[in-house]
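Support request from a user on the community tier.

User writes: "When I paste my structure tokens into the form, the page sometimes reloads and wipes my input. The last time it worked, I copied everything first. Here is what I submitted, just in case something in the input itself triggers the reload:"
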């Protein structure tokens, strides 16, 4: 049998196979951030569909400034724990593991989602007309942020999640600190790569220390921010960041890319229809995997069993992560195990829809 469908262990946690449902914001929660029955149903279908690990959509750790949109799940208060418990129990009944993704929007939000305030970022940021669109976090706010992540991770553990994933990708706050495109600070949190990763490392260490050695703490990391500015994030910096967050407690790294505000199509590339278009972060992931001791989880355009097997076999990745294919086929893993050669997702991106998460593609399935 293919290695894809065999159990896999990371530290103390074991997964029934190598498949991960990558974090996917589903818009099915209450406007106030609590879990709904519709979400529990979505997660039941995913778990029953055979996937090994489900990562929830991004859940925000600081209220209101960390909120990226309404609705969005929250984990900034104890009141969220009971709803998550039901979600976790449902997933466990069907043999899958589930992690909560911890996130902070930083500049990728709008005043209407954060009680009319100005979004925060590593630095003061301005739009093309010179209007201020984000303000720099103060040092004491950065300290508080670390407390928020720690408290959020402990809540996730109390809710029964098998682990947490810290969102450091897609242009949200921690990706903003990593990239010189958005981080122009001149203190210990900006400038050199050592300074730009200091918050990512501090958070990794703090969260891991709080939840304990046995409790998995993963990260989703940008391999590129996708922008063409001179200040874009460079791959050698990312490789170093990956090594350092792993040294500070991160147990596995999901390698992604793109910045929602400017380059969402870099994150979720449209029109993946042939094997040569698949696995678009594989070259970066391979370099990261060669440089770190922890497992790497590849996401981005994986669609066919043959491409998945080849990135597992050639040392690019240890697990196979997908988002859009599971929106169309929550039972995709069972189907692949039964012999289906590839996902039927055509990567049309109609699933990015404010009305809620569903596959809206109505054309023919790819050959
Ligand atoms: C509707 C939608 C919502 C998403 N929400 C999140 C999210 O909350 N957190 C995250 O890290 N990535 C999110 N992503 C990105 C995916 O996890 C994934 O990295 C990306 O779509 C590439 O994988 P794919 O080609 O298998 O879709 C989202 C993607 C989609 C399509």
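"...and here is what came back when it finally went through:"
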């Amino acid at each position: 049998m293919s290695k894809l469908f065999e159990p896999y262990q990371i530290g103390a946690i074991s997964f029934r196979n190598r498949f991960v449902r990558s974090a996917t914001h589903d818009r099915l929660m209450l406007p106030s951030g609590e879990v709904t029955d519709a979400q529990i149903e979505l997660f039941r279908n995913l778990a029953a569909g055979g996937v090994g690990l489900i990562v929830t959509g991004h859940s925000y750790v600081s209220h209101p400034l960390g909120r990226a949109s309404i609705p969005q799940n929250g984990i900034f208060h104890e009141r969220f724990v009971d709803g998550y418990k039901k979600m976790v129990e449902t997933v466990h009944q069907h043999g899958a593991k589930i992690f909560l993704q911890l996130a902070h929007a930083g500049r990728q939000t709008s005043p209407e989602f954060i009680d009319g305030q100005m979004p925060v970022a590593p630095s003061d940021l301005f739009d093309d007309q010179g209007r201020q669109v984000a303000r720099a976090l103060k040092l004491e706010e950065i300290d508080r942020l670390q407390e928020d992540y720690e408290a959020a991770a402990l809540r996730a553990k109390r809710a029964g999640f098998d682990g947490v994933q810290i969102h450091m990708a897609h242009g949200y706050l921690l990706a903003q600190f990593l990239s010189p495109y958005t981080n122009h600070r001149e203190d210990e949190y900006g400038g050199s790569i050592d300074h730009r990763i200091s918050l990512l490392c501090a958070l990794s260490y703090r969260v891991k220390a709080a939840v304990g050695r046995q409790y998995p703490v993963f990260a989703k990391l940008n391999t590129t921010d996708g922008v063409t500015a001179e200040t874009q994030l460079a791959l050698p910096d990312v490789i170093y960041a990956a090594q350092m967050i792993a040294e500070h407690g991160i147990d596995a790294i999901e390698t992604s890319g793109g910045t929602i505000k400017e380059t969402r199509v870099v994150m979720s590339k449209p029109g993946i229809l042939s094997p040569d278009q698949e696995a678009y972060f594989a070259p970066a992931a391979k370099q990261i995997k060669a440089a770190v001791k922890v497992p790497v989880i590849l996401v981005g355009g994986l669609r066919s069993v043959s491409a998945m097997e080849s990135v597992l076999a050639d040392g690019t990745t240890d697990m196979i992560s997908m988002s859009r294919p599971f929106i169309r086929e929550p039972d995709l893993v069972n189907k692949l195990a039964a012999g289906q050669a590839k996902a039927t997702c055509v990567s049309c991106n109609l699933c990015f829809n404010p009305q809620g998460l569903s596959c809206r593609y109505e054309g023919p399935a790819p050959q």
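Agent notes: The reload is a front-end session timeout and is unrelated to the input. The chain has twelve helices and 13 strands. Residues 3-337 form a domain with the TIM Barrel fold (CATH 3.20.20.70). Escalated to web team.
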